[in-house]
Design goal:
Layout: E1 2-6, H1 8-11, E2 19-21, H2 26-36, H3 41-44, E3 55-59, E4 62-63, E5 79-84
Parallel strand pairs: 1-5
Antiparallel strand pairs: 1-2, 3-4, 3-5
Length: 89
């Protein structure tokens, strides 16, 4: 199973402990995590189930490309990091 890590700045708003989840895509993995933590879905995903603009996800150190359908590949040994993106100057 892939390791899924939500950064501390997200956990200030929604409790999401580091966990493991099965899936072949980012969508599959997030759906598995949100099945156990439904309160987090609306914080990470928008009403169209796309990644919110203030969020970013890395799989094995690489930023995902598909922010809408979340089809980037994940394997059993992957690490998925979910970050709250920061902006400003």
């Amino acid at each position: 199973m892939a390791k899924v890590v939500f950064t501390p700045n997200i956990q200030r708003h929604v409790a999401l402990p580091q966990t493991e989840a099965s899936g072949r895509t980012v969508r599959d993995v997030l759906d598995a995590v949100f099945a156990d933590h439904p309160q987090a879905r609306g914080y990470v995903l928008d009403d169209q189930s796309a990644l919110r603009k203030h969020m970013t996800i890395f799989v094995d150190g690489r930023i995902i490309h598909d922010r809408t359908r979340l089809t980037d590949a994940v394997n059993e040994s992957s690490t998925v990091y979910v970050f709250q993106a920061l902006s400003g100057g």
